[in-house]
Amino acid sequence: MPLELTHPHDQFPRVLRTSRRHNGGGAIIGSDTFFPNSRASFIEKALQRLGDSAHCEATGYRILFFKTTETFRQRKPFIEVSYFLLFSGLETYVRKALNDFNSKEVAVLLNKHLRKLGFKVFSFSESQLERSMDTYARLRNALFHSSKFEAHRTIRGSVHTYQLTDFYAQFLILVALVVVKATDFDDGHLNWDAWIDRQLLK
């Protein structure tokens, strides 16, 4: 019986199917090429934090960490799901840190604790809405209570509309920076105001 000869390339499928992971929006910590010890140091510190059950229970670190990472682990991310994960993770972390689970003024609580961490934020600032925790709280409330991607606030008689898509990127970077800060990591190269100017390194 004659042997059937095949081309070596016929052993491989003509189409390779891959599953791409959703990009989390950009790394906060510099690449290994330029900062060879930074990522390893952060991972080590994060694992120590995550392994400390007492610390995680007292601070909400584990909830903040995993809700933040879940935003880019989703196979098909929805902005409303990602935003709610980010906000609820941050709120839990802040409420535990301040031991305040009753206050309805979440923007005030976020402002209070993030300022302690060194972030330039406000409870509300008419001229700097992107730094106002009130902006993000209103967007969360609009999503959660009304399934709307916009929120409104009356300022000196005029109604201002906040679009979630206009503020999502800033909030994503802010929460990522809070995770890094809560991990007690700083390699001296991070720009803690990157959520505003988009310059991650200094």
Summarize the structure.
This protein has 202 residues and is mainly α.
- Radius of gyration, in Å, reads 22 Å
Mean pLDDT across all amino acids: 89
Summarize the main sheet: 2 strands, antiparallel
**What share of the residues does DSSP label as strand, in percent?**
5-15%
> How many individual helices?
8
Low-confidence stretches: none
Helix content: 40-55%
Overall body shape = globular
Q: How many strand elements?
A: 2
Order of helices and strands: HHHHHHEEHH
- How would you classify the helix and strand content by structural class? mainly alpha
Q: Reading side by side through the largest sheet, how are the strands ordered? A: 1-2
Span between N and C termini?
72 Å
